[in-house]
Amino acid sequence: MALVASLCRPPSGTTDESGARGYNMRKGLGLWLGIAALSLAGCSDDSTATDADGAGDADADIDIDVTADTDAGADADSSAEADAGADADDDGDALPDETSDAGDAADVPAPVPCDPDLALADGDPLDAARAIGLCDGVISAAWVLPDGTPATPSAAFDLGHGILSGFGPNVAPREGDRLLALSSGTARSPADPGYGASFDKGYACAAPSGYPMELPACPGVATAEPRDGIGLDVEVEVPPWATGFAFDSSFYTHDFPDFVCGAYNDLFLALVTPTPLGLPDANVAFDAAGNPLNVDSSFLDACTCPSGPPCVAGGLSFDCALGMATLAGTGFGADTPAQEGGATDWLETRVPAAGGTTIRIRFTIYDSGDGVLDSTVLLDGFRWLTAAGVEVSTARP
After folding, report:
1. Nearest-CA neighbor of 199 among 217, 211, 184?
2. What residues does each domain of the chain span?
3. Which residue, of 26, 38, 226, 381, is most buried by count of CB atoms within 10 Å of its CB?
4. Given this model, what pLDDT does residue 11 score?
């Protein structure tokens, strides 16, 4: 009876149309449906069940005449098998559907955060991936330099990554309890141990392929060679039902306003391998003009100036629509007058990816030209997408 009762109980898990984490929780659903189809008699109420002899008794759930072969019984069996087959995968996407008309929405497991209680200075790159929201399918994770070469851990390098419960009083994680910060200085807020306002780590590093580059917003100006760079490189298995992925990022920099359209532009890049079709390089995080996330980007909305907004710097105009609230408590200018700064709002980046394939994502940030006036990026909200026609894009949510 315990076996029959368990078969009558559906597996745990809920659905979500926008994306998924924890998809392995549902790999057993097809097996459950197949067994349940053969155990339909055991799902009836014991108090009213009737066995093959026509008598209602205590063992009605298991007292079944296996020699009975009426047309009605055959039809019932074939109907049950047909229904089970239809429910198992009626949309051909390699996962069973919960109802015959639910479509892909029923195939997507609900997000399950995997970052509770992660420590600020946790040095495990797998935990850094979890802080972003990468919970399942991670094949490997490693700390690297901007060009992808392995990093040598040191006290200075390790201050460049931090797992935060928030950034100042106004910026909270996008999912779960934590977010990941990467910084060319210290990945900390002023309230955290190890924070430094302008921290020169003292090391040079090679640029990713295609960089330094001339930025579209500033013709004729190329960024300088990287300094104090840090990166998280993750290799991930794309779920068979996914059509792409998305993540959220927010970029903070001390380069505003003095180094707009200058060579000392710190950069955040999200480099994807294989490179999505149609891109000039592997970076998937850029504004409408093709600028990577940096001080010249049109996404820089958290800022102020004595005569604005709008604020004009380096020949570019910034609306500064977010004012300074996003910068409060972060060390990037709102309450530290000696440290000017600016930031973007949370941005959503979407990238196509073929289900069942393996991809690499390298999140990296670095100073350009020198090791002072640092920049920090916040990363969170990684999720898988199921919609058709995903294209590379970065936009305000």
Report:
1. 184
2. 2-107, 125-395
3. 226
4. 37
pLDDT band at 107 (very low <50, low <70, confident <90, very high): low
> Dihedral through CA 14, CA 235, CA 294, CA 372, nearest 10?
120
CA atoms of 166 and 330, how far apart (whole Å): 10
- pLDDT band (50, 70, 90) for residue 260: very high
Radius of gyration from C-alpha coordinates of the chain: 27
- Peptide linkage before 309 cis (omega within 30 of 0): yes
pLDDT at 59: 39
Q: Count of residues for the chain?
A: 397
Cα–Cα distances (Å) from 156 to 125, 209, 269, in that order, read 16, 25, 21
As a whole number of angstroms, the distance between CA 208 and CA 282 comes to 9
331 to 120, 253, 324, 339, 350: CA distances (angstroms): 17, 10, 11, 7, 29
Residue 202 falls in which region: left (phi positive, over 0), alpha (psi -120 to 50) or beta: left
What CA–CA distance (Å, rounded) separates 162 from 173?
Answer: 13
Residue type, 230: I
Tokens of residue 200, six digits: 């020169």
List, in sequence order, every beta strand (DSSP E) within the chain: 138-144, 161-164, 179-183, 226-237, 244-253, 267-273, 300-302, 311-313, 316-318, 342-344, 347-352, 358-368, 375-385, 393-395
In sequence order, which residues have a C-beta less than 8 Å from that of residue 73 and are 6 or more positions away? none
CA dihedral angle for residue 187, residue 192, residue 196, residue 202, rounded to 10 degrees:
-50
Sort strands 267-273 and 358-368 into parallel, antiparallel or unpaired. Answer: antiparallel
**Exposure of 308 by Cβ count < 10 A (0-12 exposed, 13-18 middle, 19+ buried)?**
middle
Q: Are 178 and 131 in contact (CB under 8 A)?
A: yes
Average pLDDT over residues 238-267: 96
Q: What is the pLDDT of residue 252?
A: 97
Q: What is the pLDDT of residue 44?
A: 38
DSSP-derived secondary structure for 273-311? ESPPTT-SSSB--B-TTS-BBSTT-TTEEE---TT-SSE
pLDDT above 70 coverage of the chain, percent: 72
Report the alpha-carbon distance of residue 146 to residue 36 in Å, rounded. Answer: 52
